[in-house]
Amino acid sequence: MVPQSPALLYYLSIPSALTQEQTQFILQSLTMSDQPKAALEYFDTLSTTYEASTGGCTRELGRYLISIAPPFTADSKVLDNACGNGIIAQEILIKNPNVPLSITCVDGASAMVDLARHAVQARNGNSFATLSFDVVPGENLTFPDDEFTHSITNQGILFFKDGQKGAREIYRTLQPKGTAIITSWKSLGYIPLIHQAQKAVRPDDALFRIPISDDWYSTAHLEKTLAEAGFGNVQIHEKTVYYAAKSVGVMSGFLVKLFGQLVQGWSEEETAQFAKELRKAAEKAVVKVQRPVVGNEEEMEELVGVEMVALVAVARK
């Protein structure tokens, strides 16, 4: 059975840890209205649509993670864990175009691995890097002990079926003196907007909740999880990024689409009112955002968005 939970669509903002069935549902939903016939066109369109639906927050965070990671050299062996569409790998290649490093992208959903393969290989036109892609869940990494110099799990561990096991696998596969960077969310700026719109239309309904334990919003829980996995040196800090778009209308439109299943069963009038209230809430909450265009850090784009505060753990073995 295809998953119908409204919470499922939230995973689009955190590309990781999805089942194959869930991912296929998401990708089909994003593209069913206009699927290109050519395979390359299909993946190009899907990649663009997927990226836009995330509000750019995971890429913005990924860029930051790469900036604080140890230098990438010819000896680097990188794991992009719970890779989603391969944002970490893409950004490493953009910033290190001439470095013959090795990058391995894994995700538990084959559809996401296919998308990552296309998107990452498109960034590797110079052919210096060695790339590999595999369908592997984060809790059961199929690599030898002490394999990677860098291991980055960007907004994945909080959606693993077993976060503690996933953390142990990160530790096991990291080389001695290697660095792992693992992120979770502390706060999600668009959830209050969804709640405001819900309360305006259906004040007696239970407010929508993200399907993860509240523990993952806690620095203490993330630190404890990594310490119990074996890491003795863990530093955690916060980083603010933005769920953003070209305009309030575009941003609220993405959110209506992402959380469309939330209003399943509502009347047309209620659904229209929800969209109206969501946009009204967004207009009051957004701030101006500037960030580099994907693939071209020399060009900045002007956006509006809401804050997403990440917990960033830097752990060394």
Q: What report would you give on this structure?
A:
- This protein is an alpha/beta fold and 317 residues long.
- The chain has a single domain (6-188, 210-243, 306-316), classed as Vaccinia Virus protein VP39 (Rossmann fold), CATH 3.40.50.150.
- Helix content is 39%, strand content 25%.
- Strands 1, 2, 3, 4, 5, 6, 7 and 8 form an 8-stranded mixed sheet that branches.
- A hairpin with a 2-residue loop joins strand 7 and strand 8 (296-316).
- The protein is globular.
Key features?
25% strand; alpha/beta; eight-stranded mixed sheet; 10 helices; 317 residues
Secondary structure elements and pairings:
Elements: H1 20-31, H2 39-53, H3 57-68, E1 77-81, H4 87-95, E2 102-107, H5 110-122, E3 130-135, E4 148-153, H6 163-173, E5 174-188, H7 191-201, H8 219-229, E6 233-245, H9 248-258, H10 268-285, E7 287-293, E8 296-316
Parallel strand pairs: 1-2, 1-4, 2-3, 4-5
Antiparallel strand pairs: 5-8, 6-8, 7-8
Summarize it.
The protein has a single domain, classed as Vaccinia Virus protein VP39 (Rossmann fold).
Please identify the oligomeric state: single chain
Overall pLDDT confidence: 86
Shape: globular
Number of domains: 1
| Strand percent estimate | 15-25%
Helix content: 25-40%
Domain Methyltransferase type: 79-182
GO molecular function: S-adenosylmethionine-dependent methyltransferase activity
Protein name: Methyltransferase type 11 domain-containing protein
Pfam family, one: Methyltransf_11
